[in-house]
Design goal:
This protein is α+β, with helices and mostly antiparallel strands. The chain has 1 helix and 5 strands; from the N terminus they run E-E-E-E-E-H. It has one domain. The chain has one helix at residues 60-69, and strands at residues 9-15, 22-24, 35-38, 45-48, 54-57. A 3-stranded antiparallel β-sheet has the order 2-1-5, with no helix packed on it. A hairpin with a 6-residue loop joins strand 3 (35-38) and strand 4 (45-48). The termini are far apart.
């Protein structure tokens, strides 16, 4: 039978403020202060507070981009 793809839950995800896609946050642990990250999809560089970092699924576009450049 068919198997579902594995649930790709990423531990640290942020939502880009311009393109609204879920992208991987560039952190290994939860930060105490804000971080600066450039979205690889739209190129927008923004600040993100720790409250904006969450555990969740990466967007399909980011997942495809990461596979293309070999990041996942």
């Amino acid at each position: 039978m068919f198997q579902e793809p594995p649930a790709r839950i990423h531990p640290y995800v942020i939502t880009c403020k311009q393109c609204k896609e879920n992208i991987a946050a560039p952190v290994q642990t939860m930060p105490d202060s804000w971080i600066i990250h450039t979205c690889p999809l739209c190129g927008e560089r923004r600040r993100y507070l720790p409250a904006e970092i969450f555990k969740g699924r990466l967007s399909f576009d980011f997942d495809a981009w990461a596979r293309k450049v070999g990041r996942l």
